[in-house]
Amino acid sequence: MTQEQQTRKGNAIANTYGRVNNLTSHERFRVSFCTDLDKSVLVNNFEKRGWSQVGSDDDWNFYWACVQSCRGIFSVDSGYRMNDNQMINHFPNHYELSRKDLLVKNIKRYRKDLERDGNGLAEKAESNWSNSASTRYLHLDFVPITFVLPADYNMFVEEYRKNPQSTWIMKPCGKSQGAGIFLINKLSKLKRWSREAKNAFHPQIAKESYVISRYIDNPLLIGGKKFDLRLYVLVTSFRPLKAYLFKQGFCRFCTVKYDTSVTELDNMYVHLTNVSVQKHGTEYNSLHGGKWSVQNLALYLEGTHGKEVTDRLFGAISWLIVHSLKAVAPVMANDRHCFECYGYDIIIDNKLKPWLVEVNASPSLTSTTVTDRILKYKLIDNILSVVLPPDGVPDVRWNKIPSQDALGNFELLLDEELASQEDNSHAHHNKNSRSLGNRWK
Ligand SMILES: Nc1ncnc2c1ncn2[C@@H]1O[C@H](COP(=O)(O)OP(=O)(O)O)[C@@H](O)[C@H]1O
Ligand SMILES: [Mg+2]
Fold this sequence. Notes:
By secondary structure, the protein is of the alpha+beta class. The model is unreliable at about 10-25 and about 430-440 (pLDDT under 50). The protein folds into 3 domains: about 30-90, no CATH class; about 95-125 and about 135-140 and about 220-385 and about 400-425, ATP-grasp fold, B domain (D-amino Acid Aminotransferase, Chain A, domain 1, 2-Layer Sandwich); about 145-215, Dna Ligase, domain 1. Helix 2 crosses helix 13 (about 370-385), helix 5 crosses helix 12 and helix 11 (about 295-305) crosses helix 12 (about 305-330). The strands form 4 sheets. Strands 11, 12, 13, 14, 15, 16, 17 and 18 form an 8-stranded antiparallel beta sheet that branches. It has 15 helices and 18 strands. Bound molecules: adenosine-5'-diphosphate and magnesium ion. One of its GO terms (molecular function) is ATP binding. Belongs to the tubulin polyglutamylase family. This is Polyglutamylase complex subunit TTLL1. One of its GO terms (biological process) is microtubule cytoskeleton organization.
């Protein structure tokens, strides 16, 4: 930031908190933004706030960057040092949460740490999964059993042999949008794939690591079709953890009816809910884009399963999100210039248990329908009002406690700082103020 900008910022702050308003709007601090993504939902939001666009080499205050640019900025070699009036939309090592293999590794470690400390959260119980006895975590069993290949191959085979009837899903760690994913129901198929992958014709595949996860083969179906949830979670700090959930998430439906028969195992229109996959199908409806709002889902579930069950499900979803974040909080570089909006992919099974499938650090801002565009515009608008101080100028010295109004469609999931303040002042009597409300209505 230039000297002049600093002075204007100083004036703008004095203006906001001081008594005398002697600055014209023209003299106010003008935020400069920069973006790698040419998306109207972003640029329209920035321009609405009177911000001006600059290049990434210029003096920017707010950068909506792709993960590669962000990595570049934070790399030791770049020598880039951010000042107090700069913010960026990724944490330097977000991949601890968003890479499929690291997410599982961190959750496994989190559970082990709690177990070692004798924490009741890590309580285990005998369970019967597909007729074989195994122990599972009672409260932290929210990711399907997962192994990294090729590293954990032997452990996978051991698990596989316990339930040779079950189906597994192979996913490349470094890809997204359903690319490279396939299902297997026989070890021989995995062996064949492994041989072919090592083939000289596919040297790039041979180097890639994969996760192999238990396939949730009993998803909740609506109209006979599988769907998953895309929920947006905004994190403004990992230590203390400050996380917010956007109330307007949505369901993404498959276009073809769910069918577990072996002949359909390779039919991705049956098994993968990614819009990027489904939109190529002949049954894709571009008017609704195969989407349903979470509010609609809640109403449907209340009608079919009752309110109590529905509330319990959404409570379990919030629980899952909070613990996935707690699992990575100790390893995240908690840079105060950063915030991040994650796209959570969650599958609900037919016993109404939610499963965390993956977390995206760059959820799609592409709009496939009009409703989608409105929703994503609102999402960005609300993100900006939560991450920016009341005067709208990026400032890392701010305490990151937004007003209720600034939250918009976000609901507080957890603010460890506020929670400890409330504990200290015994304010927990007044539970309505900052506790988990019914955020889905
Ligand atoms: N363990 C699983 N059980 C059932 N379906 C799954 C599972 N993992 C992924 N899927 C399906 O595959 C889709 C893509 O998987 P995901 O992990 O989100 O990878 P990508 O990065 O390609 O989106 C999910 O949206 C979901 O529909
Ligand atoms: Mg996904």
